[in-house]
Amino acid sequence: MASLPLTQLVTSMPEDVVTVLAGGGPRAQAVAGVELLDCPEAAGDLPPAQLLLAVGLDPADDTAGRAALRTAADHRSVLAVKCALPAPTAFVERATEQGVTVLAVDPRVPWTRIQHLVAALLAARPGDPEARDRRLPGGDLFALANAVATIVGGAVAVMDTQQVLVAYSNLPDQPIDETRRRGILGRRVPKDAVADHLDRELWGSDAVIRHNRPGDLPRLAVVIRAGQDVLGSLWVAFADADRPPADDHEATLREAAAVAAPHMLTLRRQADDDRDSRNRALRSALETGAAPDHRTGIRLPAVLLGLAESSRPLHQATAGEVDEDMRLRADLMRMLDLIALDGRSLGHQPVATLIGDRLYALLPTASPASVPVDHLLDHLMDRARRSLGRTYTLVRSGDVASPAGLREARQDIDAALDHLHDERAAPGVYRTHELHAELVLRRLLATVRDNADLRTGTAERIAAHDAEHGTDYLATLGAYLRHFGEVVPAGAALHIHQNTLRQRLRRAEQTFGLSLRDPAQRLLLSVEIAAMGKPGN
């Protein structure tokens, strides 16, 4: 694997993910690999020129910071730490004294994503510039497609993993069939050819695959890859359907795929930057109610999703694991990535953001989705359980048609998630309209709880009497009212005989001046007891 200049590595990362804290000048060393540094004391066999990801390091911890910097200096490597800016001054000064280049990583970004991005960037960099086929240009993908088409005598097309046609050769008199024509016009793989484009043999190896689809010209195809990260594929159609392409074309196509990889990574980074911009716009719209600018890419009408953890992890925590709150947030970030990647792969165009310990995603309803929303949500829940070992509660809104509706949808989702948490509801997918009655009641009780003018004070007097005298009038009245005045089920709920219940009710009426035959008194007392959240409600 070739090395990558530090400045190029930093500028190739998504916006605001990485910042240079110390070092990083013109003479800063290049990076040849990426390694996890979770135990500096056991880093003796690390190769030099690595990006060391300081997992679990707090730069404010003087002892741990010294050990990590010493390891980076000994191995002539770059150290990456997670910290909010500005970083601790003492740590930055010590790094400068030791000549160690330090990168600050956004604390919200999982280490696994940083490791994956750096590994992909390094894998896409050519290891031996002298070995490159000089006939292949270093320009854009269209120039590359034309060069390959000239060399092999076919028509070239380059697709990304979302079946989007990102470049194609446009030389005169090129061979063309109906699949290529529709692909160029629609700038994506035609629906009836998607299954061929996703051929398992192609995506599972680096070999050049021969492909013959009935009614189409014969093709050669090769995957475009950076390390283990698949970025897309390159296809060449040949004019002579009766004569297969020559074997010597395969080396040219493999070299072309290697040249295309950095370009595809750049396109992916631009797509990630656009996605991050949309995510920030969604967060702003949900938090402030501001109308999203049409340039952000947030499109309405859409369905808003809200997701929160519903239980502890399925696996048991072991000694030495990071703090559970940090692990929960990291898993939520991974879940955000799952929603983005799986959503796109299944035909949706999700925008997602993390606010506190809840994840919100917007699914435009105008997307030409091939998979229904409900199927996508079930898929995501299953992926979370299998991949993350966590169970989540997900609430989806109805269609949201305006910015104001977006804010209201978030309020409904938050109320629903609070309600489901309080009720210890089973994890799964819920809809706000199915919980409408519970949400209205929750708002009503909150209003009564916060406004003394809406309460008679009877429930408070009963609660105070119970606390002073050790009685259970409030629980008794709550159970009786909750069971619509039926003494048998109310007594069973309280585990007392129905005659005992009747005696308590008579004493309660006498003690507090109640008339349980008065519908108005019964209604108000029911609401006040429910607003207090006391037993029996």
Keywords:
537 residues, alpha/beta, Udp-n-acetylmuramoylalanyl-d-glutamate--2,6- Diaminopimelate Ligase, Chain: A, domain 1, Beta-Lactamase, Alpha-Beta Plaits, five-stranded mixed sheet, five-stranded antiparallel sheet, 18 helices, 16% strand
How is the secondary structure organized here?
Layout: H1 6-12, E1 18-22, E2 33-36, E3 50-53, H2 62-74, E4 78-82, H3 89-98, E5 102-105, H4 111-124, H5 141-152, E6 155-160, E7 165-168, H6 178-186, H7 194-197, H8 200-203, E8 209-211, E9 219-226, E10 229-237, H9 249-288, E11 302-309, H10 324-345, E12 351-355, E13 358-364, H11 373-388, E14 392-400, H12 403-422, E15 428-431, H13 436-450, H14 458-469, H15 473-482, H16 487-494, H17 498-512, H18 519-532
Helix pairs in contact: 2-3, 5-9, 9-12, 10-11, 13-18, 15-16, 15-18, 16-17
Count of domains: 4
> Roughly what fraction of the amino acids lie in strands?
15-25%
CATH fold-level name of the largest domain: Alpha-Beta Plaits
CATH homology group of the largest domain: Reverse transcriptase/Diguanylate cyclase domain
Q: How would you characterize the largest beta sheet? A: 5 strands, mixed
Tell me how many strands there are. 15
- Helix count equals 18
Structural class: alpha/beta
Overall form: elongated
For the largest beta sheet, what order do the strands appear in spatially? 1-5-4-3-2
Helix content: 40-55%
What value does the average pLDDT take?
Answer: 81
The CATH architecture classification of the largest domain is: 2-Layer Sandwich
Distance between the termini: 66 Å
